[in-house]
Structures are given as C-alpha cells and as structure tokens.
Design brief:
Elements (H helix, E strand, L loop, with lengths): L1 H9 L1 H39 L11 E6 L3 H4 L1 H15 L3 E6 L5 H8 L5 E6 L1 H12 L43 E5 L7 H4 L6 H14 L2 E11 L5 E3 L2 E5 H6 L12 H9 L8 E8 L2 E2 L14 H13 L15 E7 L1 E5 L11 E2 L1 E5 L6 H13 L9 E5 L1 E5 L7 E4 L2 E4 L3 E13 L2 H12 L1
Parallel strand pairs: 1-2, 1-3, 3-4
Antiparallel strand pairs: 5-6, 5-18, 7-11, 7-16, 8-10, 8-15, 9-12, 11-13, 13-14, 15-18, 16-17
Length: 451
C-alpha cells in the first residue's frame, strides 16, 4: 500500500489525469444506468395499456409515425428506436413508421394516406410544419371541394367511420379531426413547451411525450394559414418572423468555433451592415373574432340503412329554403410600418380555455435600437424567438395581409423554417388541430379555468 501511495505521489500528474478520467467515466456510466431505468419504467407503463382487454371484433388502432431521421444532426432515428419505438409497440397500437428521406416528402405522403387513427410526428419544428402543411393541403380539407347540387348524395357508397354522406375521398375535414402526437427529437422543438413539462433529461422528455400519446389527453391548437400570391398555402402552429434578428440567428452556426460567444458574434457582425436596419411594409388586418361555443362530439349509434336512405332522399327532393343573410362589412385597418422585426404568432404558447375571442398576436418592434441592445436582445430571441419586447406595437388580429415593396430581399422564418419573403395573407384557423398533451399540463389549464 505504501508503494502504491508513493508511486501515485511520484507520478502525480498521471494520477490526477487518471482520477479525473475515472470520475468522468463513472458519471457517464451512472447516467446511462439512470436512462435505462427511465426506459424500463416507461415500457412497464406502456405494457399496462397493451394488456387491456378489448372486444374481439374491435380492430387495433392504427398509428402512423412520420420520422425525420435527419433531425438533431442525424441522431433522431437512434433516439426514436431506443426511447419511443418500444413504448409504442408495447401499447398495443398497430404502428407504421414512415421515414422521410428528403425535404417535402411528408407533404406528398400525407396526400396519399388513406386510413389512420393517430398521426405521430417524430422530429423537430420543421417536421411538425411539414406534416401539418401536408395534412391541411389534402383535397378533403379544402372547402372548395363540394358536391354539385345535381348529384344525389345517396348515389355514393355509405361510409361507416365518419358518418358523412360524401364518399370517403371527399369527406370534408376528416383528417384534421385525427389527434396528433408529437415526439420532440429535433434541435428546436417549440411545441414541446406547450404540450409537456420541462425536463433537462432528454430520455425522460421523449418517454413522457410518448406516454402522453397513450394516455389520450388532447388540447386544441390554433394554426396559421400563410398564403402567397402564387404558392400553395403553408401552415404553422407557432408563427412567422421577418426581420434582422431572424436573419442574424440563422448565421449563428457559422461561428461555431467561438463556442458560447457564437450567438453574440453573429448579431454583432450583422450590425456592420447598413444601420439602423429597417424593414418597411404595409399591413392590413381584421380584429379578433368571437369564439363560437365548442360543439360536443356526437357518439350516437349509427341508424339503420333504411332510415339513412329515407333521410337522404328527403333531403335531396325537398325544396331548398333560402334565408336572406346580411353580411357585415369587414373593417380592415391599414398600417404603414417600418420595423427592425415583425412577428405574427399564435396563442399556443399561452393556452387559455376561457378565452372568448380568437386572434393572433402581431408584434411590430421599434426600429430605433442601439447596437448593444440589438446584440443583447438577439441572444434572448434565440431562446424565445417570438418574444415581443417592451416598446413594441402589439396588434390582435384574426386575419392580415402583409404587402412588401417590390424588390424586397430576405426570408421569412415560418416555424423556424426558411421561406422566401413575399406578399402574404395570414389567416388564423382557431382550434384547428388536436394535439396530445401531458395530463399534468391539461390539469394546469383546467385549474386556471376554475380560478
């Protein structure tokens, strides 16, 4: 023992390095052990769902997972297979995993998808934006697709699942009623702050999100429909950004070699351009709309075939009754703006079940900002991109039109995805989609309603 102590004292540099290495290795192994315990506990909880008895005639619920393996710098596939896939398979769901190979593939696949009970998004903000855009671009989601009045509804095959008199390919707004689950695997997962409790452990965060899908609690989320002059509409659950902070934020990764100073460096070097940086546009908007009462889901039994045929024949042959309707004129407000950044955001970050009006938040930031304030505020916006600082003009609107001057360069950030800047119309679709959430988050919302 004395010889060992003497050797350690004689080679103290090597001894110190070895002790540090041994301590780091022990901490790493302990962390892996804790992660395995979290996975085991989550799988045991999921198995309880899978062991539940069900009637022999009831089909298994189908879950379609859209997985982006490229998310989180290519680690998303491994994270899903280790932390989420075992939970889904043990729960008794009929799981189909669709791995996207290129950008935009999920949009195309959703146009062809026919039958599923659950849609699960495994990725980051970009994957969420792509899936909901493909979902809401479907033909059965477009209000323009209606049957001609001369075609009897009863000539089409009867559908069992949606209680709709239209054929399944035209059954309107069917897919937007499918609940959506979100497994946060990307570098930026803005929606996870709304749906799940905060967690510093990535494994726990992923397993909690997956278990929330099995528990079945949902919350309605607003969606923004963003449409250019020629392009198809894009849909977003967070918001749209246009301005200098967004432009500087996308260049942060170029300064990776500066470590923790890369964010400040990106915003500091962006001030070397023309200063102050102004973004000029014209904005037209409509005020908030009154929220209609939530319609309860109808779960009545399906009537017999002869009753349905009689109802459809009576509906077709009866003379239509015309009721004169007075359409109130839309009160558009016009505004000329010059700002350092403009953001249009949903209220999904501050869900309020008691709200009586539906609106989106428009934040027009003051253009008179010093370079020091720009660098400091830019670091804050990297953590909360849609924050609206003091001194900004805030507008609540249900619909707006953003007109840009000709020759405007730059890009929009729509749910942290880059799109070419152009004149757009932004329309709020209130409570359009149902997302699974952690029961604890829903309980907090219900407690806020009681208070």
């Amino acid at each position: 023992m004395a010889k060992v102590l003497a050797a350690l004292r004689h080679h103290w540099k090597k001894s110190t390095f070895g002790a540090c290495l041994l301590g780091w290795g022990g901490h790493w192994l302990y962390g892996k052990h804790c992660d395995n315990l979290l996975r085991r506990a989550a799988c045991q909880e999921a198995q309880a769902f899978g062991n539940q008895l069900m009637p022999a005639t009831m089909p298994l619920k189908k879950a379609t997972v859209f997985l982006n393996p490229a998310a989180c710098k290519g680690k998303a596939g491994n994270l899903f297979e280790k932390n989420a896939a075992p939970i889904l398979h043990l729960s008794g769901l009929d799981v189909t995993v669709v791995k996207t190979d290129y950008e935009g593939q999920a949009k195309k696949l959703l146009e062809l998808m026919e039958n599923t009970d659950l849609i699960i998004i495994a990725g980051g903000d970009g994957t969420v934006q792509e899936v909901i855009t493909g979902l809401l671009r479907r033909a059965d989601e477009r209000s323009a697709l209606e049957l001609p009045l001369s075609v009897p509804c009863f000539l089409f095959p009867l559908e069992v699942s949606h209680h709709c008199c239209l054929p399944k390919s035209l059954c309107k707004a069917a897919f937007s009623k499918i609940p959506i689950g979100f497994i946060p695997l990307g570098k930026t997962c803005t929606l996870s702050h709304t749906l799940y409790p905060e967690s510093t452990n990535q494994v726990q965060h992923i397993t909690n999100a997956t278990l929330a899908i099995l528990k079945g609690e949902t919350v309605p989320l607003d969606v923004l429909q963003i449409k250019g002059e020629k392009e198809q509409p894009v849909f977003a659950v967070s918001g749209l950004r246009w301005g200098s902070y967004r432009d500087a934020g996308v260049k942060v990764s170029k300064y990776w070699y500066l470590g923790p100073l890369k964010t400040k460096a990106a915003h500091f070097f962006s001030t070397f351009k023309e200063w102050p940086q102004k973004h000029q546009a014209a904005l037209m908007y409509l005020g908030p709309t009154e929220r209609p009462p939530e319609e309860p889901e109808e779960k009545s039994s399906r009537p017999p075939l002869y009753v349905r045929l009689y109802r459809r024949l009576r509906s077709y042959w009866s003379s239509p009754k015309e009721f004169p309707q007075e359409v109130a004129p839309e009160n558009w407000e016009e505004l000329k703006l010059s700002t350092i950044e403009l953001s249009i955001a949903t209220r999904n970050r501050q869900l309020d079940l008691t709200r009586t009006e539906d609106f989106m938040d428009i934040c027009i930031e003051a253009e008179s900002v010093s370079k020091g304030e720009f660098v400091h505020r830019g670091s804050q916006k990297m953590r909360d991109p849609l924050m609206c600082p003091e001194g900004s003009q805030r507008i609540q609107a249900s619909r707006c039109i953003l007109q840009l001057p000709e020759g405007t360069e730059g890009s929009f950030g729509i749910d942290n995805e880059e799109y070419e800047a152009m004149p757009v119309e932004v329309k709020l679709l209130p409570r359009k989609l149902q997302f699974f959430c952690d029961p604890r988050m829903r309980e907090q919302l219900l407690q806020a309603v009681v208070q």
